[in-house]
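In this supplementary section we document a worked example of the pipeline. Step one takes a protein sequence of length 60 as its only input; no multiple sequence alignment statistics are reported here. Step two produces a three-dimensional model, which step three serialises into structure tokens for compact storage. The input and output of this example are shown verbatim.
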Amino acid sequence: MPAIVAAVLFFIAFLINAAHIATNDVLTSTNFMLIGLVALALHVAGVGAGRTGRGWGRRR
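The serialised model returned by step three reads:
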């Protein structure tokens, strides 16, 4: 899930940058890109994974 959020944030950053949209200091393309990188780092770290390894073994 964090990877999808990161992709959406990167796309928004690309649109802001490509269309030369004037935004305030908070909603710049750089800030969207940095938030996307945080979401991508969370995805790589395993945050938001559906299940852990417990319970998926052989049943008795």
